[in-house]
Specification:
The protein has helices at residues 25-37, 53-60, 98-106, 122-133, 141-161, 176-186, 191-198, 202-216, 221-230; strands spanning 2-4, 16-22, 41-48, 64-68, 89-93, 112-117, 137-139. With 236 residues, it is α/β, with parallel strands linked by helices. Strands 1-7-6-5-4-2-3 form a 7-stranded mixed β-sheet, sandwiched between helices. Helix 4 links the parallel strand 6 (112-117) and strand 7.
Length: 236
């Protein structure tokens, strides 16, 4: 799961207060049980659809709002609403809603911090809640794949509409960690080996590789390495 900085909301080791919202009783019951069974989380309230949700959030003041079915809500509320008074939101959605959820996350006052598919595991959901409470943005690996494929399509369109190098986006600077991972890619290491070498998760490695591809306008590892060599980013 990808996490990026976004400002901390909690410190120490206190339990994370979680409010749960879902559209179906079965989804609501499952998520409540998930929160109750997690040693780092505390369930503080729940809502079946979004009727009165803003007032409940103000009353219970949760650290995170865990929300299922955000774009199929009988009450008509979406993640783009309640942004100022709401807690950080982790969305559990269908794959067909990835684009809409990413748009909601990019809104100026958005409090959407996590995007997970509706088949995410309990462990992935718990990790996303913990990351959101720590002020991070979190993407499931399949959401990252969607972002990468979407960016590739945009880059290809820009290249086809321009002439020569004019259709290419300028290279962006890599972070120190991204440069480190790019050099490990040049050594032929797999994600698991990179994660072990750097003492980070495979999801974090995948996030950094996605960022490297985007910054270097690359579509494959080999292409990223070739560009890195030409740009002097890889130590041979």
């Amino acid at each position: 799961m990808r996490s990026v900085p976004g400002g901390s909301r909690r410190g120490g080791n206190k339990l994370i207060n979680v409010f749960v919202r879902a559209n179906s009783p079965s989804d609501l019951a499952r998520l409540i049980e998930l929160v109750k069974s997690a040693p780092t989380l505390r369930w503080v309230g729940a809502s079946l659809n979004s009727a009165g949700l803003a007032g409940q959030i103000l009353e219970f003041a949760p650290d995170v709002l865990l929300e299922s079915g955000a774009f199929d809500d009988p009450a008509g509320t979406t993640p783009m609403e309640f942004e100022n008074e709401s807690a950080p939101r982790v969305l559990i959605i269908r794959e067909s809603e990835f684009s809409e959820a990413l748009e909601a996350m990019q809104a100026a006052e958005s409090v959407v911090r996590g995007i997970l598919p509706d088949y995410a595991t309990d462990g992935e959901i718990q990790s996303a809640i913990e990351s959101a409470a720590a002020g991070l943005q979190v993407f499931h690996p399949d959401v990252l794949d969607y972002i990468l494929e979407n960016n590739r399509g945009k880059m290809a369109g820009a290249s086809n509409s321009g002439s020569g190098a004019s259709g290419q986006q300028p290279f962006q600077s890599l972070s120190p960690r991204e440069g480190e991972i790019l050099n490990l890619l040049a050594q032929g290491l797999a994600n698991k080996e990179i994660a072990w070498r750097l003492k980070i998760s495979e999801h974090t490695v995948k996030f950094h590789i996605t960022s490297i591809f985007n910054k270097l306008n690359a579509s494959t590892r080999a292409e990223a390495v070739a560009i890195g060599i030409r740009q002097g980013l890889i130590i041979l």
